[in-house]
Amino acid sequence: MSTTSREHWETVYRTRPTERVSWYRDHLERSLQFIEAAALPRDAAIIDVGGGASTLVDDLLAAGHSKLTVLDLSEAALNAARQRLGERAQRVDWRVGDITQVALPRHAYALWHDRAVFHFLTTHEEREAYVAAVLHAVKPGGHVIVATFAEDGPLKCSGLPVMRYSAAGLHAEFGAPFALLQQEGEEHHTPRGTVQKFIYCLCRREPS
What we know:
This protein has helices spanning 3-15, 29-37, 56-62, 75-85, 124-137, 167-174, and strands at 45-49, 67-72, 92-96, 109-115, 138-149, 156-157, 160-161, 178-189, 195-205. It is built from 6 helices and 9 strands. α1 (3-15) runs parallel beside α4. α4 (75-85) links the parallel β2 and β3 (92-96). It is an alpha/beta fold. The two termini are 29 Å apart. It has one domain: Rossmann fold (3-Layer(aba) Sandwich).
């Protein structure tokens, strides 16, 4: 992603209330279901990529997960989440960075979660860098949850072009190192009342 993209997201989060952005949900129910399906111990390391101001970290802390990382391109988005959590924010590793460029620790995470970052990667090079980051950071045998706009989802989000996927098409971007365990569609109702179609995939990184 470019510097322009970073500036775009900083502007979004500095000028609009978190609960009014189109992707906001009180709770990421589908993500939480998939995380539970992975049957992780509560001390397993989880990274939420593009987590920003999402409430997923709140619910994971409430469920007893103790090793959480939230990464986002926007410092303003992370600040919103930290302020909301108060003292509980100290229990989270907050990272500002572009997932196609950021350096993450090798084989550090048992689960990688991404709701609505991957579909913003509109070039092959960006997607290739993203998958390389997953392979580097997720433990062999670890789980990967990625949600994007479905084939009948929006063509743009927040004024930016996006990619749309079927479950098979999304899995194909990641390839043979990942086994597709579960897929499910979702109709997301935005704060303005419109409907956006998503596809969720739960994969396991195969042992090397």
